[in-house]
Amino acid sequence: MRYVIIGASAAGINGAENLRRLDKESEIVLISEDDKVYSRCILHHYISSKRDVEELNFVDPDFFEKNKINWIKGKKVISLLDEKKEIILSDGEIIKFDKVLIASGSSPFIPPIENLRGKKNVVGLKSLIDCEKIIELAKISKNILVVGAGLIGMDAVVGLLHFKNNDLKISLVEMSDRLLPLQLDKKASITYEKKLQENKVELILNSKVLKANLSKDEPDKIESILLEEGIVIPTDLIVVATGIRANVDFLKDSNVEVDKLGLVLNEKGETNIKDIYGAGDVSGRGPIWSKAVKESIVATSNMAGVHRVMDDFFVCKSTMNFFNIPTLSLGNMNDCLNNTELKIDILEDDKGNYKKIMHKDGYIYGAIIQGDLSYSGILTQLIKADIDILKVKKPIFSIDYSDFFRIKKDLEFEF
Ligand SMILES: Cc1cc2nc3c(=O)[nH]c(=O)nc-3n(C[C@H](O)[C@H](O)[C@H](O)COP(=O)(O)OP(=O)(O)OC[C@H]3O[C@@H](n4cnc5c(N)ncnc54)[C@H](O)[C@@H]3O)c2cc1C
What we know:
Oligomer: single chain
Bound molecules: flavin-adenine dinucleotide
Number of helices: 9
CATH architecture of the largest domain: 3-Layer(bba) Sandwich
CATH topology of the largest domain: FAD/NAD(P)-binding domain
Strand content: 25-35%
Radius of gyration: 23 Å
């Protein structure tokens, strides 16, 4: 049996490790365009020089040897032929497979704004190559603009603060009324807004980029950005963090089903074609590290004949620690805030600790825990054990771990 895995990141690496654990004998081939293994979640530490490439690596130095994985690195898959069970690489090499895991992740999406795409001082943030370009340009910039204040945009700003000096101005534009609109409400956002202010980052909320103005001397370079309100922001570097798109181009000659978000998978990680599986960002659904890992373990278990399904997973679950202020967010905050039927419980203190749970009919739809995260374990337990929170007779924020020993068979709490 030959397993092939496409991608060497959260899903590909964890999937390969799980396959080897379950199947000691079969051949495992891992192909990736990346020639290094690194965590994208800490790329901002690379931009800020806090970590070097080795310190971004999340596997042991002997990972491939120990797990007997043949890693074909620095090569791109350009086609997958499902009927022939073949993968074609950019250099023309053909790799045969018996079963394949597609873990090719996603790439930054540069929106179709006038003059923006393809310009030499426009960068997305997804890879080490992007970081190198950002660092190189940041060193010679007087003005930097980050577009999009989601997790990636915020990471970019935090990383770029390293280059901050009196001459450099960093601006952040976001079309929502708050930072991290999928993760935070306005109150939790303000905590980070204040920190941006302290660090002299210009924050422009409720605003959209309308057009990029090109340099007269270098027409492939942008010199300023025009916002909807007519504001013009001069810029030497534009980091675009306005979303991602699944890496599925190489599937266009295959019968593997792809929808407008990405690869279509069932709860076992199977595609519509036998022996072809997928995991992680390539599905275009819930692009977070922990989900990619879990999906890869589910998919590769099924590849090895061990039945597993994705269960009880909050698609939107993020933790962040910008400016050393930790926050856990569960659920899609945009959806939660627009849902007027949700009931809200809040607990806050004057030390900046903030807890909010949004629920309906006993079911938790979303939550924010900022500052002291000690409650997050309890919250995760409540969700995992499918507790009907209406049957909890204690105030929701007073529950502690000992209470979980008092759950009755029907999952009601007993006090
Ligand atoms: C800056 C940044 C910060 C983030 N912060 C967080 C965070 O704090 N918390 C969190 O949960 N998530 C975070 N994420 C998201 C998280 O990194 C992703 O969800 C995760 O990396 C997805 O893993 P993946 O294996 O599915 O895909 P990816 O990480 O996208 O990896 C895809 C792999 O496939 C390879 N590949 C792609 N196309 C091809 C091809 N055609 N041929 C061969 N190889 C190919 C690539 O080289 C790569 O090795 C962050 C992402 C970024 C970019």
